[in-house]
Write a structure and sequence with these properties.
By secondary structure, the protein is mainly α. It contains six helices and no strands.
Length: 169
Amino acid sequence: MRTNVRRLTRCAVLTALALAISVCEGLVPLTILIPLPGLRLGLANLVTIFALCRLSPGESFAILVARCLLGALVGGNLSALAYSLTGGVLAFLAMWLLLHLPGLSLFGVCIAGAAAHNTGQILAAMAVLGSPVVVVYLPPLLLASVVTGAVTGGASILLVRRVPWAGEN
């Protein structure tokens, strides 16, 4: 019983942290530096990669889904949920698979996660709009994902490797 409460609390705290980071990041438009509509650094993915490295895949996935759902509710933009969730799930799957490859650093995993996230968002846009024309937006997004994934990857190396986690048994 005590372990379940500890796991639930751990997931709730990480979900709240990811949501707070996501909301704060949404207040700072990255399009001032890079003119791609909707572009974000994806700093909330720091929580996802931290959870993937320190928790079970199920707990990590629950944190991701809760962040996407709560982010859509808090942001008042339920139509963005399809994009956020599709990108998030694809990024989660890519990062989870790549974490099991020997020799690939967190830096590379985060860049691949950013690319997968952008790919997922384009796939969601194609489904929502019913047109493949938005795929022309993918190459600049993939190029930007190298930069955004590198920022997240660099921060995740510091976070995952150096921050002690009291929740570990």
